[in-house]
Amino acid sequence: MSSKLSECMQENNEQIEFSASVLDLSRSATGLRWKTKYSKLIFRQSDTVPEELHQTVQESFLTLREHNCFFQDLVRIKGKDFFTPVSRILIGNPGCTYKYLNTRLFTVPWPTEGYDIKYCSPQIHDACKALMRLNDYLHIEAVKALQGQNLLETKEIEATTVIDREQSFAPSFTERGSVSKDQSSVGVPEDERSLKNRTSYNLTLLNYMDPLQMLYLKQEPYFGMGNMAVSWHHDENLVERSTVAVYNYSCEDAVIQESHEQELKGRDPAVWHVGLKVAWDIETPGLAVPLHQGDIYLMLDDLNMTHQHCVLAGLSPRFSSTHRVADSSRGTLEYIHGQCELALQNLQTDSDSMALSLKSLEAAVVKQVEEIHNEVEFEWLRQFWFQGKRYLKCTDWWLKPMAKLEEFWRKMEIMTSLVLSEVRKEQQIEEQRNETISCFLLLLKERQKLRKEWTESILKFLDEIANIYDNEKERSLRFTKSMLGKRYGKNIVVLFTAEICEMLCPGCRSESYVMNLSDFSVQCTNKVETNAEFDSDSAKAVCLSTQSTEETGISREVSQSFTWS
C-alpha cells in the first residue's frame, strides 16, 4: 500500500501532508509511520475504475442535484442544534435507516427484487440503480483489499516470528515494530462469511457541497490543514470492524487544474482532501490525501474506530458516495414493526362491547410497552415527519409504512391512558401498583422531556427559516419560545403579538394564524374553515410535539399533575 500510494503521488506531482511539513514517502522513517499508523487506508485512482461505471455514477449525482434531492440536516451536537454545511441524501436497501448526530435518515430505496418501488421519474430510478451498481463494485473491491491486507499481515507476522526465534527474543504482539497498537485484530485468518458481513453495504450516504456558496467554513484546528467541510469524527452506527468505501466526484474546472501547475507547499487548498489522524491524538502527525474526480478510498477493518477522519474542502463543488454497513439491529422497518407488534400484544378487545383493556399490569410488561412507545414516537415518527417532503422528491415508498407506525402509536397512546386509569383503582394490590407506577412515571417523564426538546428544536428550525426572509413582514414571523404552536388540522396555529397580527392582517383583530409548513404561507384563522386541510406532511412533526391533553387520551385531572407538553 505504501509504495502504491507513493507512486500515485509522484505521478500527479502532489503531496501527502503530515502536520506542518510535507511528508516524503521515500524516507524510511516515513514509510514505517505510514505502515504502522495508516496502512488500513486504501486509495484507488480513478483509472482503476471502469469508465462506464464512472459515467453512470457521475450522471446520477447530477440528476439528484437537478431534482433538488440533497438536503442539509438539522443535527444535534453537545445539546445544540446545527444545520450541516454538507447536503445529503440516503439511498439503500428498502426499509433501512441510518442515524448520526441524533438525526435518523431514511433510505430512498434502490431498485430491489421483491419490492414495489415507484420512483417520481425514470431519471431517479436510473440514478438509484447506478448507485446500487457502484455499491456492488465497492463490495468486491473491499473484499479484495481485506484479503490482501490479511495476507500481507500474516506474512509479516510469520517473518517477525522467524527473526524473534533466531534472536531468542519474543516481545508481546502489540510491541512489534511492524504493527501498531491501534491497528488491532491483524493476522487473524477470516472466513468468507466474515469478510462478506463486513463489506456488504446496505446503504450509501451521498454528500454534496459547493464551498464557494458557504459563508464560513471551520478551520482544521490541529495540523493547519485549512478549510473543513466535515470536522474530525468517527462514522456512527456501523457494524463493528466494517469497511467504509467512498467514491469521490469533484467537479474540477480550469481554475482548479491551473493550480496544479504551481509549486505547492503542503496541501493544495483548491483540491479536496480526506484527512486522517489517530483518534484523540494530536502528537502523531495527521494525514491529508488529495481526492480527484473518480478516486476511491477504503477505510478497512477497525480504522474507523482507531482513527478519526475529516473532509478538507477544495474550491470546486464536490459529490461523494459513502458506502456503509449500517448496524441494522435497531434501524430497520422490520425491527420497529416487530417492536410495535410485541407491545400491542398487551392490548385486548372485548368481543361483545369492543372495549379495549390491558392483559397485564405487571411492571415489566408496562415498562416494555412504554419504552417501545417512546421509541416509535421519538426515533421514527418525529424523525420522519420533521424531515417533511424531502423523500417525496424521489419516491412515496415510506408513506404507507409510516402510516402503519402512526396507527401503532395511536394504540399505544390509548394503552398509556389505560394504565393511568387502572392504577387509580383501589382494587389493585398496593405493592404491585406502586411498582407499576414507579417505572411508569419514569418513562412518562422521559416522554415529557423529549416532547419539550422536540418542540424547542422545531421552533428553532422555523426561527432559522424566518431569519432568511427578505422583507419586514416576513421577518416578523420569527418563532420564539413565547409564541405558542397548537394543532389546527394538519397545520400549526401560531399565536403572535397584537402588533404582528395587525401587520399580517390589518383590521382583522385575529390573534392566531395558520402556518402551512409545506410552503410557510400564513392565513388568519378567521379566514380558514374548520375542516381545512393543507398539503403539509412536515406539519405532523409539530402536531406530535404540541399534542393537547385530549389528543393523547389522558384525563384532564391526571394530566394536570404531570404537566404535559
TrEMBL record:
GO molecular function annotations of the record: broad specificity oxidative DNA demethylase activity; ferrous iron binding; mRNA N6-methyladenosine dioxygenase activity
GO biological process terms, semicolon-separated: DNA alkylation repair; regulation of multicellular organism growth; RNA repair
Keyword Ion transport appears in the UniProt entry: no
SMART domains associated with the record: FTO_NTD
Catalytic activity line of the entry: an N(6)-methyladenosine in mRNA + 2-oxoglutarate + O2 = an adenosine in mRNA + formaldehyde + succinate + CO2; a 5'-end (N(7)-methyl 5'-triphosphoguanosine)-(N(6),2'-O-dimethyladenosine) in U6 snRNA + 2-oxoglutarate + O2 = a 5'-end (N(7)-methyl 5'-triphosphoguanosine)-(2'-O-methyladenosine) in U6 snRNA + formaldehyde + succinate + CO2; an N(1)-methyladenosine in tRNA + 2-oxoglutarate + O2 = an adenosine in tRNA + formaldehyde + succinate + CO2; a 5'-end (N(7)-methyl 5'-triphosphoguanosine)-(N(6),2'-O-dimethyladenosine) in mRNA + 2-oxoglutarate + O2 = a 5'-end (N(7)-methyl 5'-triphosphoguanosine)-(2'-O-methyladenosine) in mRNA + formaldehyde + succinate + CO2
Subunit record text: Monomer. May also exist as homodimer.
Cross-referenced Pfam families: FTO_CTD, FTO_NTD
GO cellular component: cytoplasm; nuclear speck
EC number(s) on file: 1.14.11.53
Swiss-Prot/TrEMBL cofactor(s): Fe(2+)
Region (Disordered): 173-193
Family matches, as PANTHER family: ALPHA-KETOGLUTARATE-DEPENDENT DIOXYGENASE FTO (PTHR31291)
Compartment(s) of residence: Cytoplasm; Nucleus speckle
Skewed-composition ranges (Polar residues): 173-186
Protein family: Belongs to the fto family.
Gene3D superfamilies tied to this protein: Alpha-ketoglutarate-dependent dioxygenase AlkB-like (2.60.120.590), FTO C-terminal domain (1.20.58.1470)
Main localization, broad class: cytoplasm
Keywords: Acetylation, Cytoplasm, Dioxygenase, Iron, Metal-binding, Nucleus, Oxidoreductase
Protein name per Swiss-Prot or TrEMBL: Alpha-ketoglutarate-dependent dioxygenase FTO
Enzyme superclass (EC): oxidoreductase
Fe2OG dioxygenase domain location: 210-327
